């Protein structure tokens, strides 16, 4: 029997073979102090709207020159045009701006066999990635904003290797987020790609957190390894940790200088296990809730925040150190002590710099609007994104809140999904607070959400003055509600076109935006149970849902324009209040170190 050369045209189960193994949080490797081999720079790229690459198995093609082909082909992955990674293809070429499909990235690398194991780390692939090495399928990964680790030890060969990554950014109802969201759907390998040489036995995670009597240190190693790990915090002490079944922990008795936004003190950490050695820089602090107050290092804390998207007119979702530093400079100029990194995990450098520069963070996963709450696959994806984020950032003192959802309608399926997610966050990391942007009961006009019992902090997204023009609504809502937990205004705001001036009730003017901020502040400042104000948002940003003459694809709710320079009037309105609050630091709003 001869093989049917057209069979692939009729095979709609073509992608089944490329789902598993799937990289998850369990594959994460602690990165601090490790040598890595960068695979950034030029990669060959081929767009593939119809998934021909999987249907026709492009990844199995060799690189015979076209003049010697025995059969025609539909792609030349190894001779395609190049893009410099990290990159969003959506900004690389005008004709790819709205491309939603698969893109094949191809790159060769040499391996000198210097270590017994080798992992591949994709900093972020939006949304699903499938990795092929030397013609063999290695594994897939889901989630646009968390790192993926693949063990390629068994497939990599000494000398030259051919690596292909197929990245699929289609919006789909079962993804997290699903197909409807209020930001731009970039596609790309938009964070660093690297090889991570590893010894045979290696440290997967090392944690340090403030505990009764000192610092709790914990390690997890590859496999079910056992033996002794050593963790040192120079100046504070060290511990020998007995590792059994891959894990172990110990207490280093000490009284560390605590981390706070005003005095962001970091301590060096080094951990060893057999021949493996990793490092980190960790801040030590406590975060807790007491009644309706949030306590940092035991003292009441008012969150003076602002939301921010990971988006740039030139770079899209690619983060540079300069861009992150500028963003933090603006947050400090506004008088902020917190950033809400909306609505998905941002680059890990953001939390590292927040640790260094003294900013608190609310980090979250994109359980946004109408997720497929009754789909177990969607839950697994959401939980994995959450656990990958926790694995990546759990040593960052700046991160005080894990956000598990944003504005999700109150159904039983949503309740089951999100309470399970909140419990998963708490089980993985009992040292931080759990939050979500919750609901308003429109009948009783109260802040009321069944999910709140699983949260430490209730987020309230409200747009009184804007989508709900009557500001009295906010007064009524806050007066009616008895939350019994801290509530933070996790979003509020209004659009303003930079440079458009007019009356305070003329929508889209800077005056209107500033007036709405003024009224919001006056009301919120009088409400004792409000533990924070985190308006929407620092910069104008790209989103296709907004198409009036004022927007043309850009949300204008920024306090600063999309050029990341031009401040609107409301910037000063908010800054005045935040600096006043910080000035009251000696009484109930104290946020200083103990
Ligand atoms: C919201 C969403 C945020 C939107 C914002 C807006 O409530 O959480 O992602 O972009 O409103 O601009 O309406």
Give me some keywords for this one.
6-stranded antiparallel beta sheet, globular, 9 helices, alpha+beta, 594 residues, 8-stranded parallel β-barrel, binds (2S,3S,4S,5R)-3,4,5-trihydroxy-6-oxo-oxane-2-carboxylic acid
Q: Note the total helix count.
A: 9
Arithmetic mean of pLDDT: 96
**End-to-end distance:** 80 Å
Strand content: 25-35%
Q: List segments where confidence is low: pLDDT < 50 over at least 5 consecutive residues.
A: 585-594
Widest sheet: strand ordering? 24-25-26-27-28-31-32-33
Q: Report the C-alpha radius of gyration, rounded.
A: 25 Å
Can you tell me the overall shape?
A: globular
Helix content: 10-25%
Largest sheet: 8 strands, parallel, barrel
Number of separate strands: 35
The small-molecule ligands in this entry are: (2S,3S,4S,5R)-3,4,5-trihydroxy-6-oxo-oxane-2-carboxylic acid
Give the structural class: alpha+beta
Overall description:
The chain has nine helices and 35 strands. The strands form nine sheets. The chain has an eight-stranded parallel barrel with strand order 24-25-26-27-28-31-32-33. A six-stranded antiparallel beta sheet has the order 3-2-5-11-8-9, with no helix packed on it. The longest helix is centred in the middle third of the chain and has 18 residues, at 376-393. It is an alpha+beta fold and 594 residues long. Residues 585-594 have low confidence and may be disordered. α8 packs parallel to α9. The relative contact order is 0.10. The structure holds (2S,3S,4S,5R)-3,4,5-trihydroxy-6-oxo-oxane-2-carboxylic acid (GCB). The site of (2S,3S,4S,5R)-3,4,5-trihydroxy-6-oxo-oxane-2-carboxylic acid has 9 residues, from loops.
């Amino acid at each position: 029997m001869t093989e049917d050369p057209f069979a692939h045209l009729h095979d709609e189960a073509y992608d089944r073979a490329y789902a598993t193994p799937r990289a998850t949080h369990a594959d994460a490797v602690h990165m601090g102090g490790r040598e890595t081999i960068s695979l950034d720079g030029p990669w060959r790229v081929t767009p593939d709207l119809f998934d021909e690459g999987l249907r026709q198995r492009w990844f199995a093609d060799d690189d015979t020159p076209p003049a010697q082909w025995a059969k025609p082909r539909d792609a030349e992955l190894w001779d395609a045009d190049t893009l410099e990674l990290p990159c969003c293809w959506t900004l690389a070429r005008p004709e790819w701006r709205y491309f939603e499909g698969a893109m094949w990235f191809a790159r060769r690398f040499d391996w000198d066999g210097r270590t017994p194991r080798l992992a591949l780390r994709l900093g972020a692939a939006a949304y699903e990635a499938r990795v092929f090495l030397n013609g063999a399928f290695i594994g897939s990964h889901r989630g646009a904003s968390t790192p993926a680790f693949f063990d390629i030890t068994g497939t990599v060969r000494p000398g030259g290797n051919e690596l292909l990554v197929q990245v699929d950014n289609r919006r789909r109802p079962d993804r997290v987020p699903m197909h409807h969201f209020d930001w731009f759907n970039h596609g790309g390998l938009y964070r660093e790609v690297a090889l991570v040489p590893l010894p045979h036995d290696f440290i997967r995670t090392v944690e340090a957190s403030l505990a009764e009597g000192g610092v709790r240190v914990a390690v997890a190693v590859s496999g079910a390894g056992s033996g002794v790990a050593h963790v040192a915090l120079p100046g504070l002490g060290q511990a020998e940790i007995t590792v059994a079944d891959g894990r172990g922990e110990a207490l280093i008795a000490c009284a560390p200088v605590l981390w706070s936004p005003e005095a962001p003190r970091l301590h060096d950490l080094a951990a060893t296990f057999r021949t493996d050695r990793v490092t980190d820089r960790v801040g030590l602090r406590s975060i807790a809730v007491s009644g309706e107050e949030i306590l940092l290092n035991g003292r009441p804390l008012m969150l003076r925040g602002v939301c921010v998207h990971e988006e740039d007119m030139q770079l899209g979702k690619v983060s540079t150190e300069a861009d992150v530093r500028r963003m933090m400079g603006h947050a400090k100029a506004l008088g902020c002590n917190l950033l809400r990194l909306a609505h998905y995990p941002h680059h890990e450098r953001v939390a590292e710099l927040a640790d260094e520069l003294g900013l608190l963070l609310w980090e979250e996963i994109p359980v946004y609007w109408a997720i497929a709450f009754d789909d177990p696959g969607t839950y697994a994806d959401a939980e994995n994104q959450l656990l990958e984020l926790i694995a990546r950032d759990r040593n960052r003192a700046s991160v005080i809140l894990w956000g598990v959802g944003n504005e999700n309608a109150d159904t039983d399926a949503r309740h089951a999904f999100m309470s399970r997610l909140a419990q998963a966050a708490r089980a993985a990391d009992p040292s931080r607070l759990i939050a979500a942007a919750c609901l308003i009961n429109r009948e009783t006009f109260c802040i009321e959400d069944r999910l709140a019992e699983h949260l430490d902090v209730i987020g309230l997204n409200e747009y009184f003055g804007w989508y709900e023009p009557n500001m009295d609504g906010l007064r009524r809502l806050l007066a009616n509600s008895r939350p019994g937990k801290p509530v933070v205004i996790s979003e509020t705001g209004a659009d303003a076109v930079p440079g458009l001036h007019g009356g305070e009730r003329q929508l889209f003017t800077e005056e209107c935006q500033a007036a709405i901020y003024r009224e919001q502040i006056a009301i919120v400042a009088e409400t004792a149970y409000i533990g924070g104000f985190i308006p929407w948002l620092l910069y104008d940003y790209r989103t296709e849902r907004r198409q009036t003459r004022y927007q043309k694809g850009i949300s204008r709710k920024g306090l600063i324009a999309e050029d990341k320079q031009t401040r609107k009037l409301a910037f000063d309105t908010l800054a005045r209040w935040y600096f006043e609050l910080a000035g009251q630091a000696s009484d109930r709003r104290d946020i200083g170190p103990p």
